[in-house]
Amino acid sequence: MKAIEIEHLKKYFGTVKAVDDVSFTVEEGEFFAFLGVNGAGKSTTISVLCGKEQRTGGEVWIEGRPVDADTKRAIGVVFQDSVLDRSLTVEENLSCRAALYGIDGDMFQRRLEELSKLLSLGELLRRPVGKLSGGQRRRADIARALVHSPRILILDEPTTGLDPQTRQQVWEVVHLLRKTRRITVFLTTHYMEEAADADHVVILDGGKVKADDTPLALKNRYAFDAITLYHVGERELQNLSLPYERAGEGFRIRVKSTAEATELIVKHPQLFIDYEVTKGGMDEVFLTVTGKRGGDR
Amino acid sequence: MKQLFALVKRNCKVYFKDKGVFLPSLISPLILLFLFIAFLGNIYRDSIRDVVAGFEISDGLVESIASGWLVSSLISVCAVTIAFTANTVMVQDRVTGARNDFLVAPVSERILSLSYFIATYIVTAVMCFVALGAGFIYMAAAGWHLSAADFFLTVADTLLLVLFGTAFSSLVCSFLKSQGGVAAIEATVSAAYGFLCGAYMPLSSLTEWLRDALMFLPGTYGTGLMHLHLMGGAIDAMTEEGIPHVMADAMKRGFDCTLEFFGSTVPVWTSYLVLAAAGLLLLGVCLVLHLGRRRKS
């Protein structure tokens, strides 16, 4: 079953085409990465998905149903900045948000216990959100997004501005959710290494879809592989007639594919004594796709 | 209904738990009352004696009339200024993104707007009744001349003034997008409203054209009602000390207990009607504005 289906979505603000004819699908249980520079249309698309913004054109389905008040129950959102009330305790925040979904009384207490176990909230529940550390607050934000047991979790740049340790904590929670609940994760991020683990990536630029595939396929299509050679002289390298650059104690050669790398190694075994082959990363894919750097293969 | 209740509860909690907003709002009416008594008390006492020049009037009665004027002025101003402070929750939610969090839940814009309105009403009413309680203590010390009817009508006047203040501030705050904006508007309103509604200076002391112009402002009618019910009993008591009825009536006109609009006396029921209608009309405009914005988006 498809968790999200978007067909020819358009959202215009006056003459500004924030989202222009965007189509993609997200499968149930998938880890989906939605990438784009600031202003690419990611947040607008999410606002339409959540029913917060009306669309100008196109169709959007959540679990096979057009977006309406009911489909909001299928979605939980973790915003880039914490939106919980700083003066209220975590429990008070969760109680208020749960009531918006009709969850209160014993039902809320049961849910609170589940979330507390899942996210190790424990004593944090009685502390004001404003007094929590960055990582604790993020856990509280995730608890808020999960308070109504959504089947789709939207993470809108969830780790921006967080320290590496807190980022790791956030990802541990997300991976745990995927493993235990088979929850569909819809991620927007500026950290490309986070998108590298996704099942499916869509890159948006200028309100349009520029790429839609798995990370591997995108890397193969848009990123160069690299061979880093050590203990080799620059003169020997020049004989290869390939562009190269210094990389620490060695030299890096860019090749179009792993196959080309293999061919090169077989052809010049004397040069490849100490070397490593690395696939192009999502950073490179992103820069190439969005045209922020030339070199589309 | 559960959603509305949860949101109202949350909005009130956020206000009362924000000590930086709540405590100054609580203390400022009491400070204002003290300043009124300390700096303006003698001016009003002298004014009262001037009106009945040539007749003997006890100091206790003068004190009682003056206290009625000061307390009624205080509540008239507080009903509007505190409402602006209470509405910072609505503006703050726009700034922090909490509003987005509510709108991704199955909550309608109408419910959300209504929740801010009701919470502002509750908060303003609570604070005004605290101020009124302090005012009653001062009036009792000065000499109590309020009948049971006046007492309950004062409570009703306060509730109506709070309705007007809430609707007026909600309308203005619906255009504001920063807490600085609320603070600036609040400072302006605090400075100007007392003069415009006849709380600091009786309208009767103003030039005729200005008096008639100010009578187009609904808040003036609320202040008039407060003056009538908090001072009327003490002014009527003057006749028991031998002051002619005609002089008591003149004093009621002089201190805005009886309002005049283009030379005609405004009946009390008309004042109630104007105040209630203005409050409901402004509330209607607020809701239409919020819904209009939603449709536009």
Distance between the termini of chain B: 25 Å
Q: Which strand order does the major sheet of chain A show?
A: 6-7-8-3-9-10
Average the pLDDT over all residues of chain A and give the rounded result. 86
Class computed from helices, strands and strand pairing of chain A: alpha/beta
Q: What can be said about the biggest beta sheet of chain A?
A: 6 strands, mixed
Calculate Rg of chain B over CA atoms: 20 Å
**What is the count of β-strands of chain B?**
2
In helices, the fraction of residues of chain A equals 25-40%
Low-confidence stretches of chain B: none
Strand order of the largest sheet of chain B: 1-2
Walk me through the topology.
The complex is a heterodimer of chains A (about 300) and B (about 300).
Chain A (H helix, E strand, L loop, with lengths): L1 E12 L2 E12 L3 E6 L5 H8 L7 E6 L2 E2 L8 E4 L11 H10 L5 H15 L14 H13 L5 E5 L7 H18 L2 E5 L3 H4 L4 E6 L2 E6 L1 H8 L2 E6 L3 H5 L5 E4 L2 E6 L2 H10 L6 E5 L3 H8 L8
Parallel strand pairs in A: 3-8, 3-9, 6-7, 7-8
Antiparallel strand pairs in A: 1-2, 1-4, 4-5, 9-10, 11-13, 11-14, 12-13
Chain B lengths: L1 H16 L1 H33 L7 H28 L1 H9 L1 H6 L5 H34 L5 H26 L5 H18 L11 H7 L3 H23 L4 H10 L5 E2 L2 E2 L2 H29 L1
Helix pairs in contact in B: 1-6, 2-3, 2-6, 3-6, 3-7, 3-8, 3-10, 6-7, 6-12, 7-10, 7-12, 10-11, 10-12
